[in-house]
From TrEMBL:
Cleaved signal peptide residues: none
CDD domains referenced in this protein's UniProt entry, alphabetically: AAT_like
Family from the record: Belongs to the class-I pyridoxal-phosphate-dependent aminotransferase family.
Name of the molecule in the record: Aminotransferase
EC number(s) per entry: 2.6.1.-
Alphabetical UniProt keywords: Aminotransferase, Pyridoxal phosphate, Transferase
InterPro entries the UniProt entry points to: Aminotransferase_I/II_large (IPR004839), AspAT/PAT-like (IPR050596), NHTrfase_class1_PyrdxlP-BS (IPR004838), PyrdxlP-dep_Trfase (IPR015424), PyrdxlP-dep_Trfase_major (IPR015421), PyrdxlP-dep_Trfase_small (IPR015422)
Length: 390
């Protein structure tokens, strides 16, 4: 028996994540600085950790309800209303998931299958396209550009829509570019979508991490509330990546079907993480604000560092990434990233890990210490000056 051939072609055709290769290499390299993994360098705030510890000491180590503790779902709804003016029923419109990634997966599995199309703006988070392929649906890629600061425009969206389009994934604030969609940008998208039978999966995991602008959810538009699944979580804003906790918000008729997939595949999210998340939503706004202030300092240093090295770099207003153009070096994204790691011991991610239109760019993450960022930018400048295309 050829075991490899027993695996479904839809799975075999999907390559491993391009991010992890550089992460693994840098772990083997002494004195290397990693700007490659999108993970906060902060430790989860103490009050959140303490809530998790206390739940363990109290013996709260059993399953939770499939959709998550009602207390947590209530806090999620209060938070969304307070922050983004979004009103949801904690009983019927919320599922607590194992990270935001599970939410994306179960939303797609509930909505699409063979013959359906999913519009995916790229560059984007690496999981959208594979998760779509795993359902048997067809990813329809919309290539974004620095000219529009990597924002989805109504013209690009219109061109991508066909009679088979069922879902649009809207990933803002964006990984890897740091782009945001402001209210005026979303208004134009809503005009395209409001009369169409298309569901939006709005990945808002970086909603708290914006600089000089406020995050606006497409679900806050009355025409889009019922047609949007909001994906959010605790990993990025609260530095809780290892706790693996996220949530989905949406229309009861859709959430109830996503719930079944979650129920049979996962059963429930980690209990300890849920108790910690309740504390995060109730009492950690100040911690998030402090982290955002520090990210903003680092963001400015990194953008200026790339520009001083002679690389074009638009100003990202969200998440914790910078996406500079490296075309002036004459190298491909992969070559630039590999040589930078080998020659200067700095790890960034090739833009092509996030879609073909990422060629000519690299992703650099500023969720690292200021000392690391300053040293990395010195090394990058030295590398660029040494290798710039004559």
């Amino acid at each position: 028996m050829n075991i490899a051939e027993m695996v479904l072609p839809t799975v075999r055709q999907v390559p491993p994540s391009g991010i992890r290769k550089f992460f693994d290499l840098v772990n083997e390299m002494k004195d290397a600085i990693s700007l490659s993994i999108g993970e906060p360098d902060f430790v989860t705030p103490w009050n959140i950790r303490e809530a998790g510890i206390y739940s363990l000491e109290k013996g709260h180590t059993h399953y939770s309800p499939n959709a998550g503790f009602m207390e947590l779902r209530e806090e999620i709804c209060k938070y969304q209303e307070r922050k983004y003016n979004l009103k949801y029923d904690p009983k019927t419109q919320v599922i607590v998931t194992v990270g935001g990634s599970e939410g994306i997966d179960i939303a797609l599995r509930a909505l699409v299958g063979p013959g359906d199309e999913v519009i995916i703006p790229e560059p984007c988070f690496v999981a959208y396209k594979p998760c779509t392929i795993f359902t048997g649906a067809t990813p329809v890629i919309v290539n974004l550009s620095a000219e529009n600061e990597f924002r989805l425009t109504p013209e690009l969206l219109e061109k991508a829509i066909t009679d088979r389009t069922k879902v649009l994934i809207l990933p803002y604030p964006n990984n890897p570019t740091g782009a945001v969609m402001e209210k005026k940008d979303l208004e134009a998208i809503v005009e395209v979508l409001k009369d169409k039978d298309i569901i939006v999966i709005s990945d808002e995991i970086y909603s708290e991490l914006t600089y000089g602008v406020k995050h606006v959810s497409i679900a806050s538009f009355p025409e889009m509330k019922d047609k949007t699944v909001v994906i959010n979580g605790f990993s990025k804003a609260y530095a809780m990546t290892g706790w693996r906790l996220g949530y989905c918000l949406g229309h009861p008729d859709l959430i109830s079907q996503m719930y079944k997939i979650h129920q049979y595949a996962i059963m429930c999210s980690p209990t300890t993480a849920q108790y910690a998340a309740i504390e995060a939503l109730r009492n950690s706004d100040d911690d998030v604000e402090a982290m955002v202030r520090e990210y903003n300092r680092r963001r400015r240093i990194m953008v200026e560092g790339f520009r001083s090295a002679g690389l074009e770099c638009f100003e990202p207003l969200g998440a914790f990434y910078v996406f500079p153009c490296i075309e002036s070096t004459g190298m491909t994204s992969y070559e630039f990233s590999e040589r930078l790691l080998m020659e200067e011991k700095v790890a960034v991610v090739p833009g092509t890990a996030f879609g073909e239109c990422g060629e000519g760019y690299v992703r650099s993450c500023y969720a690292s210490s200021m000392d690391n960022i300053i040293e990395a930018m010195k090394r990058i400048k030295r590398f660029v000056e040494r290798n710039r295309k004559k």
